Amino acid sequence: MTGLLLLLPLALIAGAALPIQFAVNSQLRGFVGGAVAAAAVSFVVGALALSLAALAVGRGLPQLAQSPLGAPWWVWTGGLLGAFFVLMSIVLTPRLGSAPTVGFFLSGQMIASVAIDHFGLFGLAANAVSLPRVLGVALVLGGVFLILRY
Questions:
Q1: From first to last of its 150 residues, what are the pLDDT tens digits of the chain?
Q2: Max Cα-Cα span within the chain
Q3: Does the predicted TM-score (pTM) go above 0.85?
Q4: What residue ranges are annotated as transmembrane (predicted)?
Q5: Is 74 among the domain residues?
Q6: Residue 142 within a domain
Q7: HSE-up of residue 10 (Cα within 13 Å, Cβ side)
């Protein structure tokens, strides 16, 4: 439980970073000539930061020769999904606003997460859909629509 209590604030901080990232990248768009260029710059800066972090913790940079080439194809899609996520945040935030964009992203994440858990996809343990989980997702969706409307 102590470990969980330490992890929850980190999850909240990471969640709070999303609307900041969305707003910052949306502004970057105007300086670099478009949404795709802004997403690319964002990923380059992120890759540099993560490379420095890997060096700082003594792990070094990953060696492609040691990459898990026998891994399932879908393990390689994380970067593509991240690029889509960042690009859509840049495109949608100025049009929808910060709160609705984050809300719809969160709603999509909740729906996908419940499905992933239910079917035990991507190597995760299965956790069947239940009425409380469905109600939780419905409450999130309801909250998003309230934010969008008011």
A1: 678 888 989 988 999 999 999 999 999 999 999 999 999 999 999 999 988 888 888 766 666 556 667 778 888 899 999 999 999 999 999 999 999 999 999 999 999 999 999 999 999 999 999 999 999 999 999 999 999 888
A2: 53
A3: no
A4: 35-61, 73-92, 104-124, 131-148
A5: no
A6: yes
A7: 5
